[in-house]
């Protein structure tokens, strides 16, 4: 078992090895076969102007108030709340069409800035109501959140409790300030040429209730807009026939690949699969099934999530929403836009009933409906996007230079929904290993395999 775990780690490390650097433009070489369309960054329906507001130097914005309690023993991410049975798709679309534009924008006045954290304490109840109504709130031009200290003051004034990232054990994010329950966003220079599609911070097993994304430093050489879209608006927009098909058939998502030589005898391949299933998969805190060659590639072993509905009712409001990460995970979309993920981390989306990858036509409809409702935010120092994680999806465009955004995840006020699990420190091993591996990559790493 230990030998296999080491082999899996070495395989991952090989996949992360740097290759020849590609152009910095958003049109990159394909990672697969010749004839695949040129990679182009998707459009957005709404694109606010940049304002070039100044921020603080890193040594200033990263200071933590050591007089405050250490929050590193935060709550575990709560279990996903599913209410997806018996949905009438036509009625769901009619309900979803009534929602206002997401996000709501709240711009700080001089009086608001003078209040500091008290502004959020005074308005906490209204902010929470608006969050349910709009799905996300963009706090723009607030000086308080230009630093880690002020950002923590903000969410504590709102009275929301931080929790672990749903994928904490996977190592996709490391802490920016662990004692302040603050994760670094995907700022790694090695992934600045990678477009992150729309997704909720969710798996079939765990989902954060809320998130607060903060900008401390915008990209120094351009790009890096933060993407947000309303899951209700996407649901209302989508072709009813495609939506009904996806709801009826459900979907499954593969989260990683391990390529085994196809010539290995069948019994040995099954042994490898069983060992990975026992030794590696549990480290990701997800309900995964190890399946060979689901995407048709000989010898490929994929870790696949359980079947889930692409439509879910919001746990509080009951509003039907598009609650699904296909825009980010579908291979047919990733292969047509800037992508810096190596093969071991390439994902795919399948129809759950047949385990066939989603068709190009269905992927294109998901793309169209999703991107029409993207607001590509020009977040600058001190800006925070507060997100209802069951309602709004988020992502990130490519950027140049250096960028520092961060995020905290929050659990439910409801004790039953929150659960009683505090942080399980045994999950840290995979997180530290993968983040250490990613930190070795050169700044302009891109996975251009052919």
Automatic annotation (TrEMBL):
This protein's record includes keyword Chaperone: no
Which Pfam families does this one have? TauD
* SUPFAM superfamilies membership: Clavaminate synthase-like
Q: Which InterPro entries match?
A: AlphaKG_dependent_hydroxylases, TauD-like_sf, TauD/TfdA-like
Q: Does this UniProt record's set of keywords contain Signal?
A: yes
Q: Describe the location of the TauD/TfdA-like domain by residue ranges.
A: 113-403
**Gene Ontology MF term list:** oxidoreductase activity
Show which residues constitute the signal peptide: 1-15
Q: Which UniProt keywords apply?
A: Oxidoreductase, Signal
- What name has this protein been given in UniProt? TauD/TfdA-like domain-containing protein
Q: Could you tell me which species this protein originates from? A: Chaetoceros tenuissimus
């Amino acid at each position: 078992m230990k030998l296999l775990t080491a082999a899996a780690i070495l395989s991952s490390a090989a996949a992360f090895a740097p290759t020849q650097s590609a152009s910095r433009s958003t049109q990159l070489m394909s990672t697969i076969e010749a004839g695949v369309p040129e990679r182009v960054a998707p459009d957005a329906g709404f694109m606010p102007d940049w304002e070039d507001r100044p921020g603080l130097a890193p040594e200033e914005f990263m200071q933590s108030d050591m007089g405050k309690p250490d929050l590193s023993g935060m709550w575990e991410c709560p279990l996903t709340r599913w209410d997806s049975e018996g949905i009438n798709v036509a009625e769901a679309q009619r309900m979803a069409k009534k929602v206002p534009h997401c996000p709501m924008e709240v711009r700080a006045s001089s009086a608001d800035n003078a209040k500091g954290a008290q502004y959020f304490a005074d308005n906490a109840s209204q902010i929470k109501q608006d969050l349910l109504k709009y799905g996300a709130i963009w706090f723009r031009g607030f000086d308080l959140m230009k630093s880690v200290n002020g950002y923590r003051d903000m969410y504590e004034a709102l009275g929301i409790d931080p929790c672990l990232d749903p994928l904490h054990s996977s190592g996709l994010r490391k802490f920016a300030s662990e004692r302040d329950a603050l994760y670094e966003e995907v700022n790694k220079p090695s992934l600045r040429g990678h477009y992150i599609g729309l997704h909720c911070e969710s798996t079939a097993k765990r989902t954060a209730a809320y998130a607060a994304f903060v900008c401390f430093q915008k990209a120094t050489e351009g790009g890096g807009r933060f993407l947000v879209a309303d899951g209700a608006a996407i649901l209302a927009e989508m072709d009813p026939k495609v939506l009904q098909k996806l709801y009826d058939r459900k979907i499954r998502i593969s989260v990683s690949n391990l390529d085994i030589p196809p010539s290995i005898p069948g019994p040995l391949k099954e042994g490898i699969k069983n060992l990975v299933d026992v030794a590696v998969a549990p480290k990701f805190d997800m309900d995964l099934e190890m399946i060979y060659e689901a995407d048709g590639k000989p010898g490929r072993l994929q870790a696949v999530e359980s079947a889930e509905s692409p439509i879910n009712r919001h746990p509080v409001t009951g509003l039907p929403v598009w609650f699904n990460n296909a825009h980010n995970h579908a291979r047919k979309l990733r292969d047509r836009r800037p992508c810096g993920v190596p093969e071991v981390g390439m994902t795919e989306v399948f129809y759950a009933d047949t385990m066939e990858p989603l068709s190009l036509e269905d992927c294109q409809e998901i793309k169209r409906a999703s991107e029409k409702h993207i607001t590509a935010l020009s977040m600058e120092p001190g800006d925070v996007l507060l997100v209802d994680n069951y309602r709004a999806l988020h992502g990130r465009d490519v950027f140049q230079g250096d960028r520092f955004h961060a995020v905290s995840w929050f659990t439910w006020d409801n004790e039953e929904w929150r659960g009683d699990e505090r942080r399980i420190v045994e999950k840290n091993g995979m997180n530290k290993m993968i983040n250490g591996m990613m930190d070795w990559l050169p700044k302009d790493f891109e996975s251009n395999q052919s």
